[in-house]
């Protein structure tokens, strides 16, 4: 590498970190809902970059809840908390985690190197704690009095699910089962591998979400792509950009749905029992494309990635094209907006038709989906960086998203925090894992 080339690269990185690219042209919320406006792609030599540098929460500063709600910190000082899970006794589990260390065999990529610099500035460059921590709020005041190490020595853990006395963890490379006794604050025994999940030396989208079927017979694991639009070759995408189904009786897995660039949170809809997920769509087509989305997931369906988006909208960057796959691509149910980066989601009530609305939230938040929008680097102005609520009616989204928890950005565009995983706690309040802020927030009625 010549000094002139290296200087050019460093100058390019400096420009990226300073922010550059096109501005969004669509009016607010035009890229949301069941029929979002899709403008023409923007061709760019240099992608739009607009990073919110990680700052953390100053003393006395809190995110802003919607009218009628209040927010407390269930726990502070956590190590990059990304995901939350509530046990039947009310204990809250927090996955303190980040991407695994890069393998020595990973191929060098200039864009990957630049992306690492960008993500470090955004607060995603910390070493993974590889730990699940248990929080216990014994007096119900919204603040955990005790915390303990529930599990450690994991490999970038993310999704969690309890089925009977079997506790499952989705590491970055596979699902592991542990024996669990109700009320225990720590698991010391070794886990038993259940099934491998796609990982490997690139492992671009490293998070692996997890949810159990309502009858406890199956697990569903969400696996993100190994690239933006297949630029590492489709061989590197084997088994990725998909949701896998795992039969717990046999240990066998099968592809449940595919063409989902980076699915994360999952949930079962009340009444219909359908599986839903939120998906991070592709980057580098401009500030107005492509809307991230919330969708029901059909068995055997293909959702377009990388060949098309929102149905049959072809991405001409992908070579060779696959018109046969584009022809069968399913359009998502509901656009959340371009580059909001949805990660966590949870239904306000459980999958049963008679499941009660959460007692600690107002009635206007009783039927629908909460979504944690982590915020993206690929749009001007910033989008995401908040928690929203998508109202449902008769098992389908109805209307536009409602802001539930906002002000994760400072007035000068720095990130106090970034919402990730969500869950409803045992008292019906909303829990929000905030990785940059190192907090788990609790949102409830005043």
Briefly, what is this?
The protein has 446 residues and is mainly β.
3D structure, described in words:
The protein is mostly beta strands and 446 residues long. It has helices spanning 3-18, 110-121, 323-327; strands spanning 32-33, 64-65, 69-75, 81-86, 92-96, 131-136, 146-152, 160-163, 166-171, 174-179, 192-196, 208-212, 218-223, 242-247, 253-258, 262-268, 275-280, 291-296, 308-309, 313-314, 334-338, 342-347, 368-373, 386-393, 396-397, 402-406, 419-424, 430-434, 439-445. The strands form seven sheets. Strands 2, 22, 23, 24, 25 and 26 form a six-stranded antiparallel beta sheet that branches. The radius of gyration is 21 Å and the shape is globular. Helices cover 7% and strands 34% of the residues. Mean pLDDT is 92; it is low at 1-17.
Q: Catalogue the unreliable spans.
A: 1-17
Q: Main beta sheet: strand number and arrangement?
A: 6 strands, antiparallel
Overall SS class: mainly beta
User: What is the count of helical runs?
Assistant: 3
Query: Averaging pLDDT over every residue, what do you get?
Result: 92
- According to DSSP, the number of beta strands is 29
The structural domain count equals 1
Shape assignment: globular
- Beta-strand content bin: 25-35%
Q: What's the name of the CATH homologous superfamily?
A: TolB, C-terminal domain
């Amino acid at each position: 590498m010549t000094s002139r080339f290296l200087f050019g690269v460093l100058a390019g990185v400096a420009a990226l970190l300073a922010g550059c690219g096109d501005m969004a042209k669509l009016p607010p919320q035009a890229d949301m809902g069941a029929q979002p406006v899709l403008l023409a792609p923007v061709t760019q030599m240099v992608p739009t970059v607009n990073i919110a540098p990680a700052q953390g929460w100053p003393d006395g500063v809190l995110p802003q809840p919607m009218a009628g709600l209040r927010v407390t910190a269930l726990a502070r000082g956590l190590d990059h908390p990304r995901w939350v899970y509530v046990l039947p006794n009310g204990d809250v589990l927090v996955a303190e985690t980040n991407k695994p260390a890069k393998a020595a065999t990973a191929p060098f990529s200039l864009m990957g190197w630049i992306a690492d610099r960008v993500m470090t500035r955004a607060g995603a460059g910390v070493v993974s704690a590889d730990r699940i921590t248990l929080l216990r709020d014994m007096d119900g005041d919204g603040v955990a009095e005790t915390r303990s190490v529930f599990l450690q020595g994991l490999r970038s853990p993310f999704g969690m699910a309890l089925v009977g006395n079997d506790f499952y963890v989705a590491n970055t490379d596979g699902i592991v089962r542990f024996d669990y006794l109700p009320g225990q604050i720590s698991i010391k025994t070794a886990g038993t591998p259940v099934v491998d999940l796609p990982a490997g030396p690139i492992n671009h989208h490293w998070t692996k979400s997890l949810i159990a079927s309502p009858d406890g017979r199956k697990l569903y694991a969400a696996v993100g792509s190994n690239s933006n639009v297949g630029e590492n070759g489709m061989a590197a995408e084997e088994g990725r950009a998909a949701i896998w189904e795992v039969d717990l009786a046999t240990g066998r897995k099968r592809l449940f749905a595919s063409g989902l660039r980076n699915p994360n949170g999952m949930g079962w809809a009340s009444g219909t029992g359908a599986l839903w997920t939120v998906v991070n769509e592709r980057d580098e087509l401009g500030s107005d494309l492509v809307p991230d989305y919330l969708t029901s997931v059909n068995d055997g369906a293909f959702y377009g990635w990388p060949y098309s988006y929102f149905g049959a909208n072809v991405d001409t960057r992908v070579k060779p094209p696959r018109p046969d796959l584009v022809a069968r691509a399913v359009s998502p149910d509901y656009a959340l907006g371009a580059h909001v980066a949805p990660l966590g989601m949870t239904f306000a009530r459980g999958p049963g038709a008679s499941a009660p609305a959460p007692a600690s939230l107002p009635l206007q938040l009783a039927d629908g989906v909460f979504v944690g929008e982590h915020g993206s680097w690929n749009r001007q102005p910033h989008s995401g960086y908040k928690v929203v609520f998508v109202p449902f009616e008769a098992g389908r989204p109805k209307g536009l998203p409602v802001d539930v928890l906002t002000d994760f950005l400072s007035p000068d565009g720095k990130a106090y925090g970034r919402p990730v995983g969500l869950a409803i706690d045992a008292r019906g309040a909303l829990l929000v894992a905030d990785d940059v802020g190192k907090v788990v927030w609790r949102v409830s009625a005043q």
